[in-house]
Amino acid sequence: MKKLCLLGLVATLASHPVWAETKPAALKDKDAFVSDLLKQMTLDEKIGQLRLISIGPEMPRELIRKEIAAGRIGGTFNSITRPENRPMQDAAMRSRLKIPMFFAYDVIHGHRTIFPISLALASSWDMDAIGRSGRIAAQEAAADSLDITFAPMVDISRDPRWGRTSEGFGEDTYLVSRIAEVMVKAFQGTSPANADSLMASVKHFALYGAVEGGRDYNVVDMSPVKMYQDYLPPYHAAIKAGSGGVMVALNSINGVPATANTWLMNDLLRKDWGFKGLTVSDHGAIFELIKHGVAKDGREAAKLAIKAGIDMSMNDSLYGKELPGLLKSGEIEQSDIDNAVREVLGAKYDMGLFKDPYLRIGKAEDDPVDTYADSRLHRAEARDIARRSLVLLKNHNDTLPLKKSATIALVGPLAKAPIDMMGSWAAAGRPAQSVTLQDGLNAVIGEKGKVIYARGANITNDKAVVDYLNFLNFDAPEVVDDKRSPQAMIDEAVQAAKQADVIVAAVGESRGMSHESSSRTDLNIPQSQRDLIKALKATGKPLVLVLMNGRPLSILEENQQADAILETWFAGTEGGNAIADVLFGDYNPSGKLPITFPRSVGQIPTYYNHLTIGRPFTPGKPGNYTSQYFDDTTGPLFPFGYGLSYTTFSLSDMALSSTTLNKTGKLDASVTVKNTGKVDGETVVQLYIQDVAGSMIRPIKELKNFQKVMLKAGEERTLHFTITEDDLKFYNTQLKYAAEPGEFNVQIGLDSQDVQQQSFELL
Ligand code: NOJ
Question: Can the keyword Signal be found in this entry's annotation (predicted)?
Answer without folding.
Answer: yes
